[in-house]
Amino acid sequence: MAQAGRLGRMRLPWQNVLCVCVCAVRVHLLSACKSGCESDPLGDGFVKRVGSELVDEGDKKFRFASINAPNLHRVEVEPKPAECSLRKCSVEEWVRAPSEYEIRDTLCSIRQMGASVTRIYTFSYGDGPGFHVNRDGVLNEAWFRVFDQMLAIARDVGVRLIVPLINTNWIEGWGSVYEYGDWANEAGYSFFRSQSQRAMFKATIELILNRNNSLTGRRYADDSSILAWELGNELTDDEFHGFPVPVEWTRDVARHIRKFDRNHLLMDGGFFSTQVLAVTEIDIVGSGWRIMPNRI
User: Fold this and answer.
1) Where would I find the Glycoside hydrolase family domain in this sequence (predicted)?
2) Residue 79's Cα: distance from chain center in Å?
3) Per residue in 95-138, pLDDT tens?
4) What is the pTM of this model?
5) Dihedral sign, CA of 33, 39, 44, 45?
6) Residue 216 contacts residue 225 (beta carbons within 8 Å)
């Protein structure tokens, strides 16, 4: 069963802000469509924020309720190989690239549910051929070609994507902000306080935004199939989700994105904090919620 994300508005005395609550659920969609679905391609326009409202390219109010599709561009193998409990498995044993059919089928299913937006999971970070981003911010062409295909299909089907850039917690097969600590030879959870790690991350973002899709030729920063860049997934300034990301970090990274991309919306990527409302570059403030077993 999938839970819908919910979009709403919050009006505060000092500022209008758009708030999105994205449900952290894993979705395993059944085939709601056949091997393909009717093409309903997106135009070249972008969704913008006007005050506390989102509007589409025709200046019509844009609202949505939808689901997460975390495996749309990178599939976690399940069940996990039994031998991985006995030894350290390679990333290739934990994840695989989705087929064109799987990507299209998922997006068709979302579209047929009446949704026009979905949120994927982050890019993956680590050393070796199994990750999107390798040491020193080098992009892995093979995995980005899978991402290219996802963007092209999303554009054809008519579904816009929320794309979080990096994960807070380390997850097997995905990596996280910890990779930048390793690459900078800095110990501990220091991603949001380290200038060297921030510089490396900003360089990676620049490469991603300026990438040209190998199938469509579109620069990522100019691709209308992307609704929003989310600065990360569940970003917090400690390992235990106890402190919000420093406002200065959020503002600096958001401004860096705006240097190369003035088309897309920006989402903060943290657990809701009123401090982020002061960052004018942020269009959408998110909050993560979970339904935990035996805690309903």
Assistant:
1) 181-269
2) 24
3) 899 999 999 999 999 999 999 999 999 999 998 889 999 987 88
4) 0.85
5) negative
6) no
pLDDT digits (tens, 9 = 90+) for 45-99: 999 999 999 999 999 999 999 999 999 999 988 656 666 655 567 777 788 999 9
DSSP string covering the chain, please?
-----EEEEEEETTEEEEEEEEE---------SSS--------S---EEETTEEE-TTS-B------B-TTSSSEEPSSPPGGGGTS---HHHHEEPPPHHHHHHHHHHHHHTT-SEEE--PPPB-SSTTSSB-GGG-B-HHHHHHHHHHHHHHHHHT-EEEEE--BSS--TTT--THHHHHHTT--SS-TTT-HHHHHHHHHHHHHHHTPBPTTT--BGGG-TTEEEEES-BSB-SSTTS-SPPPHHHHHHHHHHHHHH-SSSEEE--BS--GGGGG-TT--EEEEEE---TT--
